[in-house]
Amino acid sequence: MNKTALLLGATGLTGEQCLLGLLASERYSKVTVVVRRPLSLSHPKLHTVLTDFKNITSIQAELKADDVFCCLGTTIAKAGSQEAFRWVDFDIPEQIAERAVAQGAQQFILCSSMGADAGSAIFYSRVKGELEQAVSNMGFKAVHIFRPSILLGDRKEQRTGEAIGRFAAEKLSFLFAGPFKKYAGTPVKVLAKKMIEAAAQNTSGIQIHENDEILAA
Ligand SMILES: NC(=O)c1ccc[n+]([C@@H]2O[C@H](COP(=O)([O-])OP(=O)(O)OC[C@H]3O[C@@H](n4cnc5c(N)ncnc54)[C@H](OP(=O)(O)O)[C@@H]3O)[C@@H](O)[C@H]2O)c1
């Protein structure tokens, strides 16, 4: 198929699964990851761009690809401030998306979040919604926005809020029945697979994939 993919967040929980799926996919002949630390993986299709993300212009030429996958993100606690969070969750992906579309990228596949809403009173949801809006208005042929619930996967690092959510999602799964099914935890393997499948559909326009659709067989 000879398509090329650009992946942001390849060292993260969702990004790692996306990376494995992209490398295994026959659709892609080259997968470029933009990361701030090297990966332990090596693969003939893999092209790694190391950066601190502070000068995106300096890596602009490396951002040429057909499909851009974004799994980048942090938490306000980890970033240290709302401003620092916004830099990771909005500024970096927005700047990279702009340069990718300017160089011919056709599709943007975004791992956003349940509740993302540019008009939200909640800062996290607002930033997520603002990025959704920004990439939707950049001129990509297709934008796929995924809105998962709490992510389920083998995370090495401990995050208190997430651990509580994950406990509920995994051990109290009976709570997520009927109308609450859409809040059930989202396995990252399923999410990554759905993101790659969405790109392969070659659709046009903006498609939002809510959690119940991600979890549907
Ligand atoms: N966690 C959840 O339950 C949840 C729920 C819904 C939606 N989401 C969203 O889903 C997306 C993927 O989440 P995830 O949990 O898979 O992500 P993750 O494991 O936290 O990985 C985040 C990725 O972003 C990179 N990153 C973080 N801070 C950075 C910085 N300051 N500069 C450059 N790169 C940075 C990380 O690189 P390093 O490895 O170098 O740190 C990593 O590749 C995120 O946008 C998140 O907001 C998460």
Number of DSSP E strands: 9
Q: Residue ranges: pLDDT <50 for 5 or more in a row?
A: none
Spatial ordering of strands, largest sheet: 3-2-1-4-5-6-9
C-alpha termini separation: 26 Å
Largest sheet entry: 7 strands, parallel
Binned, the helix content reads: 25-40%
Cofactors, ions and other ligands in the entry: NADP nicotinamide-adenine-dinucleotide phosphate
Q: How large a portion of the residues is in β-strands, by DSSP E?
A: 15-25%
> Which CATH class is shown?
Alpha Beta
- Name the CATH homologous superfamily: NAD(P)-binding Rossmann-like Domain
What is the overall shape?
globular
List the secondary-structure elements in sequence, H or E.
EHEEEHHEHEEHEHEH
Q: How much is the average pLDDT?
A: 93
Question: By helix and strand content, what is the structural category?
Answer: alpha/beta
Specify the CATH architecture: 3-Layer(aba) Sandwich
Return Rg in Å. Answer: 17 Å
What's the CATH topology label? Rossmann fold
How many domains would you count in the coordinates? 1
Can you count the helices? 7
Tell me what you see in this structure.
The structure is a single chain. The chain has one domain: NAD(P)-binding Rossmann-like Domain (Rossmann fold, 3-Layer(aba) Sandwich), CATH 3.40.50. The chain is of the alpha/beta class and 217 residues long. The protein has seven helices and nine strands, in the order βαβββααβαββαβαβα. The protein has helices spanning 13-24, 76-79, 82-102, 123-136, 160-171, 188-200, 211-215, and strands at 3-8, 28-35, 46-50, 67-70, 107-111, 142-147, 151-152, 186-187, 205-210. The protein starts with a strand and ends with a helix. Strands 3-2-1-4-5-6-9 form a seven-stranded parallel β-sheet, sandwiched between helices. The protein has a two-stranded parallel ribbon with strand order 7-8. Residues 9-15, 36-37, 53, 71-74, 88-89, 111, 113, 148, 150-151, 162 line the site of NADP nicotinamide-adenine-dinucleotide phosphate.
